[in-house]
Task: structure prediction
Amino acid sequence: MSEPEALTYASYLHLRELLALQRPRSEPPEHDETLFIIVHQAYELWFKLLLHEFEKICDDFRQDHLYGAIATFKRNRMIMKVMVEQVDIVETLTPMSFNSFRDRLETASGFQSVQFRELEFLLGYKRPQMLKFYQPGTPGYERLIRRLHEPSVVDAFYAFLGQHGVTIPAELRDRDVTLPTEPNETVEEGLLRLYKTHPDLEILFELMTDFDEGFQEWRYRHIKLVERSIGSKHGTGGSLGVEFLKKSLFHPIFPDLWAIRHKL
Ligand code: HEM
Result:
């Protein structure tokens, strides 16, 4: 029997496959299309990691692992910062350069990113109307349906708060998890009390707020990127473009953490 090949950097990371995945569609190739492809692929990898990390946070919350949740929120907030910074690279594409291959994207758009929508659903921003942009029966569609029907990070957060003496009203405990997160005054009262009495929980709540702010910052930077690249043109995904994106601009993931700040 022949010896199994020794593991190498390239074989461990499947680099042959990974580096064969950047395939510009422009003919003759437009120089900047490579950047466009690599940036989007990098974002998809970050989305994948965030999904992985937020699943862990859900488990941490349910099992009351405060330090685990703190460590992972710290990581996710750093990932978010890198994701926001990556927009700077895309902004080195000029509108004319982008236009040189934009037609080749046909109707493809970040709008169709299954992982981005999964992330929104997992974070509790459930917009079932978005499902109509995905093809039923495809693995991506099935993943989205599963995420829609699963409790979100916010539902797991309620479970965590319940273990720390916060009253979670029955309408939240038994809620229809396919609906988006709504702010709740009883939860806010409990959060306020914990903020003032438990410095360790305060650290967690601030990290959650950091992540939330980072996610909104990404939306803002993406909108500005879109505005400077295509102005008032419609998106390749068929939406109104900037006008559509503005609707979710200031949408908070943890509305209760924002609602109490003037009382702290
Ligand atoms: C020149 C660069 C870019 C332009 C012009 C652009 C344009 C747009 C437009 C117009 C939309 C609205 C949907 C549509 O009609 O297509 C959209 C959505 C989206 N784009 Fe981009 N985009 C760019 C770069 C990026 C990058 C680098 C990412 C990173 C993954 C990204 C991810 C997304 C996502 C996730 C959505 C859906 C947002 C939502 O539904 O709230 N885009 N983009």
